[in-house]
Design brief:
This protein has 164 residues and is α+β, with helices and mostly antiparallel strands. Helices cover 18% and strands 30% of the residues. Strand 5 and strand 6 form a beta hairpin.
């Protein structure tokens, strides 16, 4: 895990909730109360969040220069990366922290950048990119040999924006 994230008091927990035919991840505080990706009063330090056993895992509030790109369902039936995921990862692999998502069939690309409007792409690829006003689940399950540092994701956000 990158030291910058470990030092930031932007941590929370999350729990899986069922909505209609699907599921969603709801941010909660360390006592199980609803948390907010935009309210620092509901965030805590990493050690406190890790000590809590409520919910299903750790979450991190994006913003203040922290960004994340969520690649959902980026593997094929043989567990190989899909071409669109290879293309996006090629721009940052080896330069920033990348982890496996809670489901195991996605990846989170963590990095730094100025805050901007979020991006969601469905169809051609299954990608969401945020740098403010959202929380992202955090597994700590390192993908390949990604370094424990955060690179600038501005270029990759621009690429995703053009594909949206």
């Amino acid at each position: 895990m990158p030291a910058a994230m470990a030092m930031a008091d932007r941590w929370m927990r999350w729990k899986l909730i069922h909505r209609g035919d699907g599921t969603s991840k709801m941010p909660i505080d360390t006592e199980g109360n609803p948390a907010s990706s935009t309210d620092p009063r509901t965030w805590t330090s990493l050690p406190v969040a890790e000590e809590s056993t409520v919910g299903d895992g750790l979450g991190f509030a994006l913003g203040d220069g922290f960004a994340c790109i969520d690649l959902d369902h980026c593997y094929d039936s043989r567990n190989h990366l899909l071409p669109w995921a290879k293309m996006l990862l090629g721009a940052v692999e080896g330069t920033t922290w990348i982890e496996t998502s809670p489901s195991g069939d996605g990846l989170h690309i963590w990095g730094r950048m100025n805050e901007c409007k979020g991006i969601k792409v469905r169809g051609l690829m299954d990608v969401e990119a945020y740098s403010q006003g959202r929380f992202m689940t955090f597994t700590g399950r390192q993908w390949r040999d990604s370094p424990s540092k955060l690179a600038d994701l501005s270029f990759l956000f621009q690429v995703i924006h053009r594909l949206a």
